[in-house]
UniProtKB/TrEMBL annotation:
InterPro entries xref list: CheY-like_superfamily, Sig_transdc_resp-reg_receiver, ST_Response_Regulator, YcbB
Entry-linked PROSITE patterns: RESPONSE_REGULATORY
SMART domains: REC (SM00448)
Protein name, per record: Stage 0 sporulation protein A homolog
Highest classification ranks of the organism: Bacteria, Bacillati, Bacillota, Clostridia, Lachnospirales
Originating species: Dorea formicigenerans
Amino acid sequence: MMSFYFIDDDKNICNILKLIINERGLGVCCGSANNAAEALEDLPSAKPDIVIVDLLMPEMDGISFVKQARKIVPDASYIMLSQVSSKDMIASAYEAGIEFFIQKPINSVEVEAVIKKVSDGLSMKRMVRKMQNIFMEDTSPATVTVPDNSEQIENSLRTILTRIGIIGDIGSKDIISIVKYLVDHQDNADSLTVSDLCSRFCDTPKSMEQRIRRTAFNGLVNLAHLGLEDYSNEIFVDYSSTLYNFEQVRKEMDFIRGKTDKHGNVRIKQFLNALASYCQ
């Protein structure tokens, strides 16, 4: 169950959020504050999973708060309350680490929907991290037994690849093959490079790896375009910081805008591991 911490200079807002979360069984409330300075003192002991903070507060605004808070509780997710519609300010908030906005005045249906989305994303990140740790650990002689659910895995992968617009790319079939292998061989997959993995399926592993890289990069580009159109786009929020590194997605967005001449990069092994985690 997720734990929540609230920061808003209006006590009524904090009380409303507590009421919504308690009544709808969304988690537990581990603390609240009416200003950013007080909240920064509380965070080390509260250790919340999700922090909901107002954008416009006296002395320290929500964006400045999040930049400092992430140093204290880097694994937490941050939601921002705001009446502001400025794209530049919203972009600054996302760059600071905000994962979603809730518009004021507060609507309980929107609060529940956003919290569920952020909770699911946080659970996904933790699963990815756990899977990466498993790959990094020395394995015992005993092998990991994985149930035969190949069809279910492939369906899950096709859904994700469709959502990020690359199911029709030639490399999507290669990605599905590699990810299914990763799911079935959790005990030794981390020791294999992408090239090693490709060599298990193809006599020309370099060509297969290139197809995968092109396809994964196309997904990055698609997400960047979605983010430019709408930072709160569900697909953008779901995958920009799990399948990809969010900073690289932002870099690609800047390239599309013409602010830089460098594309964002894709970490292929992270991309494949994240897909494998989605299939667990």
